[in-house]
Specification:
Blueprint (H helix, E strand, L loop, with lengths): L12 H20 L26 H8 L3 E8 L13 E2 L13 E8 L5 E4 L1 H4 L2 E7 L5 E10 L4 E6 L21 E6 L7 E12 L8 E4 L11 E3 L5 E8 L10 E5 H14 L5 E2 L2 E5 L2 H6 L8 E6 L4 H5 L6 E5 L2 E2 L5 H8 L5 E8 L2 E8 L1 E2 L2 H7 L1 H7 L5 E5 L2 H7 L6 E6 L4 H4 L7 E5 L2 E2 L3 H9 L7 E7 L2 E7 L4
Antiparallel strand pairs: 1-3, 1-5, 2-12, 3-4, 4-7, 5-6, 6-7, 8-9, 8-11, 9-10, 10-13, 11-12, 12-13, 14-21, 15-16, 16-17, 17-18, 17-19, 19-20, 22-23, 23-24, 24-25, 24-26, 26-27
């Protein structure tokens, strides 16, 4: 995460010498006689290769058309509501921190009008725990807004304003059709600078972040605190994503930002309007990533699927006979690549649907029929009561010291504590923590062993979110865990 330097400057002298020698050898070999194409160290397109066609979109026209539909959202939160801290990695973007004496914390975010009746799409974390919601349009008009529906799992919320004025609308597009490398534009209110327009490209699709339900669109368009809930727009002038998170150690943009795909949002909007929440399908299992070692043990050519770590009782999974250690590699004939694809597919299934899972158990592959029911996560989380909360480990996490062999096996550094188990329904489970995650910081304090981890937890603010820096393979993100949730 340091400053960028010349690639040559990063090379040690010995390696640099090797490169120079190797380059010289290639020149000598090329000059000594004609070489076969298969013998060359590199490939070339040749002089007759067609030139790439480069046309920049008319960003001025896009901004003029879409900016009026983008709104500024300010909220006054309930007393005691947790406010996001600056600098969360892969963090929600509304992170204005109030002075300690303020009774009602305030936050600022963005949103955009999706129809002329005054419905506005934004992030759930922008309006969560809001006592009052105010919307300011591009022409400076201010309206009170009501919360229609929200879904913390996908960080989507629907609010509404009442006005007799004609309202501009941002059309929703097709996020499945978006390609990596395509131009996109973001409009929002970073740091309170309303209707700021930034552009970039789609850097990647299908990104998973611990603690989140979405397959995010990654972009390098400059997105900062206050952009939360604003639109990510393609060159056709359609919204393809809702800006939601950034990857940063400074609290500001570092070129890696994430947006919720609009196709996922469109599936939820009818429920948010009609039922004020989203009820999604539930299987009743806790899952882990399939590591290269597990994949090799099962003869997989590459890691894929979702490893069942625990089966909840009672649940559809228990009724179907699924067991700890099973690996789910397919859902209704669709392969499961990353483990996080399974909850997405189950969540999108119709309640009561009889789905077919492709399951690896030991050396055998079998098909298991399971009936998808409504999620009981919230009910299970509350079922234990206060006594169970007292008996449970802090945040629902059991950790152990990270020894060198384990660190090497997981591909992480030697500093931190290893998550051994996560209590079902606990705050850590709801935040997306998994066994084999490595916690290297607690509330910005480095933790080298269990003692340091325990001290850091005890010194944290009681009842407030605990900020954990978590490593999972090559990914490192800050994950806020709220005790008691």
């Amino acid at each position: 995460m340091g400053s960028r330097r010349s690639c040559v400057a990063l090379l040690p002298p010995a390696l640099l010498a090797i490169i120079v020698i190797a380059t010289g050898s290639a020149v000598i070999a090329a000059g000594s006689g004609p070489a076969h194409a298969g013998d060359r160290l590199w490939s070339e397109l040749g002089p007759n290769a067609p030139a790439a066609r480069v046309e920049l979109p008319d960003f001025a026209d896009l901004a003029a058309r879409l900016s009026p539909a983008v709104v500024n959202i300010s909220v006054e939160q309930e007393p005691g509501a947790a406010v996001a801290e600056p600098g969360i990695e892969a963090e929600p973007l509304n992170q204005l921190v109030p002075p300690p004496e303020e009774v009602h914390p305030h936050g600022v975010g963005s949103g955009f009008l999706i129809n002329k009746a005054g419905f506005i799409l934004t992030n759930d974390h922008v309006v969560a725990n809001a006592r009052k919601i105010n919307v300011t349009t591009s022409n400076g008009l201010r309206f009170p807004a009501v919360l229609v529906g929200r879904d913390p799992k996908t960080d989507v919320a629907l609010i509404k304003i009442e006005t007799k004025q004609m309202l501009p609308v941002a059309p929703l597009g097709d996020s499945r059709a978006v390609k990596v490398g395509e131009w996109v534009m973001a409009i929002g209110n970073p740091f309170g600078f309303d209707h700021t327009v930034t552009v970039g490209i789609v850097s990647a699709k299908g990104r998973f972040i611990p603690g989140n339900y979405d397959e995010f669109i990654q972009t390098d368009a400059s997105i900062n605190p206050g952009n939360s809930g604003g639109p990510l727009i393609d060159t056709r002038g359609e919204v393809v994503g809702v800006n939601s998170a950034i990857y940063t150690r400074t609290g500001s943009n570092t070129g890696i930002s994430f947006a919720i795909p609009i196709d996922l949002v469109k599936r939820e909007l009818p429920e948010l309007e009609a039922s004020h929440k989203v009820v999604r399908g539930w299987l009743g299992v806790y899952i882990e990533q399939v590591t290269p070692e597990i994949a090799a043990a099962h003869g997989f050519p590459a890691p894929h699927g979702a490893l069942i770590d625990e089966v909840v009782a009672p649940s559809p999974a228990e009724s179907a006979g699924l067991m700890k250690g099973d690996i789910v590699v397919g859902f209704n004939g669709q392969p499961i690549g990353d483990s996080q694809e399974l909850p997405l597919k189950v969540g999108a299934a119709t309640l009561g649907e009889r789905a077919t899972l492709d399951v690896i158990r030991g050396p055998q592959r079998r098909q298991v029929a399971v009936t998808i029911t409504a999620s009981r996560e919230a009910e299970l989380a509350a079922a234990g009561g206060a006594a169970a909360a007292e008996a449970a480990p802090p945040l629902g996490l059991t950790v152990e010291n990270l020894y060198a062999p384990i660190a090497h096996q997981l591909g992480v550094g030697k500093s931190g504590v290893l998550v051994d188990s996560v209590t079902p329904g606990s705050a850590a489970a709801q935040a997306g923590l998994q066994p084999h995650d490595v916690i290297v910081e607690v509330n910005r304090r480095s933790v080298s062993d269990i003692d340091a981890y325990s001290r850091a937890l005890k010194e944290g603010s009681k009842g407030r979110a605990v900020l954990l820096l978590v490593k999972r393979g090559k990914t490192a993100v800050f994950v806020p865990v709220v005790p008691g949730q």
